[in-house]
What does this fold into?
Amino acid sequence: MPELPEVEIVRQSLHKKIKKKSIKKVIIRNRNLRFKIPGDFESFLKDKKIIKVSRFSKYLIIHLQNEYYCLIHLGMSGTIHILDKKKPQKFTNTSYYHSPFLPEKHNHAELEFDNLKVIYNDPRRFGFFEIIKNHQDLEKRFKLMGPEPFSDKFNLNYVVNYFKNKNKDIKSFLLDQKFVSGIGNIYASEILFASKINPFKKAKRLNKNECLNVILNSKKILEQAIIKGGSSIRDFKDITGNKGNFQKEFKVYQQEGANCKRTNCKGIIKKKMTSNRSTFFCVSCQK
DNA sequence: AAGAGGCCCTGATAGC
DNA sequence: TGCTATCAGGGCCTCT
It folds into this structure.
């Protein structure tokens, strides 16, 4: 669910809250996430100081002392909540769409600090944790993935070469983390609308200019989403914390049946399901 | 080897 | 009311 912009919003507030603090206690209530949390997970974190929280793609990276790293992937439904023990009534909500109240169920993991608790909640359990024990392994871990849209590596040469002879449709490539990292189902549709490209066009059929538009719009839309605090498509009516606003900017996502927002376009927004995922696009101006 | 599709899981909502 | 079906922002695995 959370794509790069949402994970970045979580990162920013998490970093502010826990940097330079030491983990006093680790509680795992349910080890059965996307991947099983190993039995020695707690010992890697306990009594370690947080250097900083960074991010690659949709992964949060908690930098621990001694070059240890704890990766967190939120999957589809993972959220992170911070409970301030000094003000037990109030939650700082680093998730971008839940209500400010801590959910009662599915709080699978807790990191306790002196006056603070970080709680990982994930109903569907598609998220996961991963411990990485040195800097080289961290680099290796993300080397297998494509560049982020913001990276200089995500340029015209890279994309044009990558798409040669590729018979898969362009939308699938935007979701393919080996091609580009951080884009998910919402922003893929939005990027292709902005680029006036039909999501089901085969990648090898894209000309240079279309490739360039995909590159530029990927950067632009993700940047704007971060500035707007991410997208909150569910449950955001009661948020007092970091409420996202980018969902107000959706041009096609969840806009099935609406008129195309492009001036002078008379098209209708259509939704198409392929392999259980929805794609939204204008039938008229996306060629 | 690339590409299509199934599957992991729970919850919210729609339709009968 | 209570059942069933469908869909949700991800990504790994298997089959062809």
